[in-house]
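Hi everyone, sorry if this is the wrong subforum. Our group has a chain we'd like a structural model of before ordering constructs, and none of us has done structure prediction before. Sequence below.
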Amino acid sequence: MKSTVLMVAMVLCAFTASAQKVKIKKGEIQFDGTSVAKMEKANGGMNAGYIFSDLNGTVLFNAGLSGKTPEGNPLADQILMLTAPNGNVKEFLTKDIKVSFTLSSEKLMCDYVLNCGANLITPQGVDLEKVNDYFQTSDRSITSAIDEQMKSMRDEMNKEDALLAAANIKIYSNGSVMKGSDKIGLFGLRNNTKTSEMQYVILDKNGDLIGSTNIAYPSASTTNLSRITTPVIEKYTLTTFDGQKLSYFAIFDSKKASVTDDVADRLLKKLYYAGYKFDELSVKEMAKEKSKNLYEVQGYVIDKNGDKIEGLVSIEFEPMIQSGGLMLDLTNYGGSAKLKISEDKTKTYNAKDRITVVAGDRKFVGFPGIEALDGAKLYEVVAEKAGNMVLYSVNYNVFLLKMANQDKVKLFSEDGVFVKKKPETMQKELDEYVGCPELNNEDYQLETKDGLIKLLEDYADKCK
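Answer:
Right subforum, don't worry. Here is the predicted structure as tokens:
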């Protein structure tokens, strides 16, 4: 209760400060013409900040702006630092502080201090006891978090540097990515004036996209001016051909952007370090390796007539390369299997014909889709007892039940249209599909493999 009252008081105080007219007259901070505190420029040059004191001249704290952490790491946005005479420091992100437009550095600093949320100077004046209590401890959580992040980042960057140096991979000014004397890829830079973005792209030797990064131009309306004139290291996102999002740090200078700049260099190193070894495999080969699809695995198909045909099995459960949403893909992934019977003969078998496919040590069966609008799929058999099966949907990463006396598979989910389903609703679904009153829904975790296997075992024992 006490903390709630204090919070309300702080909010009201801040609102009052913002509602009243604040001026600085002869070094005194005034609310509606009433002086409440003093401020003066500290000795030591432009970056020394301002000293704030009460009307009796008792120093309260020094207020200054900083673009670096104590360890010298650059900050994307400046911070406001309040430093007490005892040396304790409080930090605030300036981007989160509301200030009015001014060309006066004195007025700007005053606005930062009054609106930062510390509420050390109010229309009622200065409470020295409150100020002393406030500075009993330091809070440098903003810069300490940056320093920790930068340390971790540099450790990883060192590993990335070492890996690429060992592989002898470099980018040249013409965009060529070389491994020794062999060209293994190509870097490109696209200036999209419509979206005000610079796009860095890296292609494999066949011209297929491996990954890309889009970076918006810094502007005075969206970016701290110091970041435009002196770019700093920031976090960017690399999107790969298979939809992965990789974070990395780099310095982007819009005036000097090139295929050999820091963004290009760090993008290449992050990509290679993350396992995209395009010097060894093409994009298509990597896509196959990373995919949950099956390609030419020794096995067989039992077709709709019950005939067994042997060969090399391929099943695609997902697109090999993500389209990025640019094209509508109507393929029924997981809806068929291809069987390479000989070098010149490959045949397609559809899941809707309730085929059985064995690929290596994995067995799949074809059944109608989970949803009414979903096409028939091949489901992996993870357990089977007396014709009843626990299935795994490779497409949707869920486990299902298929009873021998039911035509379709069943997905048990507690998620309703708007709210979680009630236990009695889940029990009704179980009764209707399984048809055994002796089985209690609450005894099983029906969304898990183990829960469904236990249900099958109990069904065999209790539901003769």
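For your construct planning: Residues 1-18, 220-225 have pLDDT under 50 and may be disordered. The CA atoms of residues 318 and 333 lie 6 Å apart.
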